[in-house]
Structure formats: structure tokens, C-alpha cells
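Schema walk-through. Below, the input block comes first and the output block second. Nothing else is stored per chain. Lengths vary across the set, and this one has 257 residues.
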Amino acid sequence: MKGRELRLYSVGQLSKLTKVSIRTLHYYEKLGLLNPVRGENNQYRQYGDWDIFRLQQIAILKRMNFKLSEIAVILELNEHAVDESSHHAAAAWTRSLEEQLSIVRKQQEDLRRVEQLLFSAIYSIRVTGQVNLDEMLHFIKELDQPKDLSRSDLLKQVFSPEELDVLPIGKSGSAELEWADILKEINSHLHEAPDSDASQKLAKRIIDYASLLFNGDEQLGEKYWEYIAPEDGQSPRVYGMSSEVMLYIEKILEQWG
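--- output ---
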């Protein structure tokens, strides 16, 4: 870099500064991940800016659970993308960091998808009180399927970003599990009369839950209800919210108060 004196570090100095063991630094060199120069007089390893540049990438990618063989491929691709003459320039660092940020964000998306699938499996067991092997098979299948963009696009067409922040869509937490418990109780009372004590206790529980969930926004609650209502012959848009369940809920709420 213009106006900057090239700094070189011995393997011991680099190890002390980065807390990466000397043995590991040697191993990275053996794999071709690092390529220190050798001193003219003593042939000792000397690490420069570009080695630190590479070591930073290795540290991030390792933290993201990439194998060293995979890291080698990524480093090679990054190296080809950066002009040799600009190895120490801010542009080279920026490009590398942006590449790493892109990888991190992709992993975050993948992890969020796995989180939602795991929560959905827990949710279904909570609702039914039993393990459904068909749903476990579906879970395995979904892990390898590309993300369904059509549902996401539909949600954005129906709800504003502010509404999506409030809605219980694609979320996993105690509030969603509380609904699973309510849904389990609803399924056990489906054939109760809407005005029975048991049905009306459920109606109150649903009203209290909806008020908390939608922050008292009744209009948003109604909008969400209309959105999740399955059309004739269609599967429920939300797990457990079949036409039969939704009709029972509507009847007991009509009787409330």
C-alpha cells in the first residue's frame, strides 16, 4: 500500500497476536491456505499483510463451520477476484468482507428456515399430543427443498411490513406455542355446543390471546383470520386451522358475551 511500510511477522509473533497456535499456522501452510515468505538469511517464515488478510477469512469461515477443504476453494475464488496489485488496498479488504458477509447472510437464511421447520415439528406435536411420522417425513423433505417464494410474495401483497412484524407468521416462541395448546383444547371440544361452559371458556381464552397477539388491533386480527381461512377443498394455510376448527371458533365467539 502506497506510503506504508510492509510489516512482516514471525510465526511466533503472528501466533501471539492472533491466538492461533503455531501448529495450526504450520498446518494452514501445509494445506496451502497460507503462504508465508522465507527470510533470505535464515529461511524463517515471515507473514505479511496478505497472510493476515487470508487468516481473517479462514477465521470467519471456520466459525461458520466450513471445512478446511471448502475454505481452500473459497479462498482461491476470492484470490482470483482480487487483482494481485491491490492485495493490501482497502478495495481488496472491502470486497473480501462483502463476500464473507454474503455467505453469513445466506447461512442465516438457511438457519432461520431450519428453525421454522423444527418449531413446526414441535408445534404439531404440541397440538396433537403425538408424533406424526408423515409430518416427520415432510420435515425431512422440506429441508432439501428450495424456499417457497410464492407464499412470501403473497404475504407481502396482503400485509404491510408493519403488519408482518406483528403477525404470528414464520415465528417461533412462547406465544405461538400457547396457541398450539389452545388449538389442542379446541380439537377436544369440537363437538361441544357453542354455548356450553367449556366452549365459552375457550372463547374467552381465544379473545384474550388474540388481544395480546395483535396488540389490541381488532382490524388486523380480522384481516389475518380472513387470510388463513382455507378455501373449499384446500388444505389449511396454518397448521391445524381447518375449516371445521375455524367454523367452531366462529360459533363460540358469536355466543360470547
